[in-house]
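[agent] plan:
  1. take the single chain provided in the ticket
  2. run structure prediction with default settings
  3. attach structure tokens to the ticket
  4. add a short note for the reviewer (M.T.)
[agent] executing step 1
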Amino acid sequence: MAGAIGPGDWVECIDASPDWWGETVPLVVGRIYRVLRLERDPDRERPPGTVEECGVILVGVRVGPKGDDSFSLGRFRPVYRPNVDIIESLKAPSPSRELEDA
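[agent] step 2 finished; step 3 output follows
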């Protein structure tokens, strides 16, 4: 995992392969999704304390019999989205400088 993922983050799907049972998943590789929440999934066979022991619940994507199952974090990569202040500072004109005589 390249960076931490948390609620409200945008992620790109990098793995839409069938799940452990061979069932298709409602994901599309390359599509951007928003994380609703992370949840600890005791059914995941991963070492305690690793990122993969958590599952991702996405906004608007329901999966499982009750619609609350999660996806493995390994199916996604974070999408960097700078905050508004950074974008505005990059759009601002550069301060003018006087040219020095060579």
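[agent] step 4 note for reviewer: Helices lie at 84-91.
[agent] ticket updated
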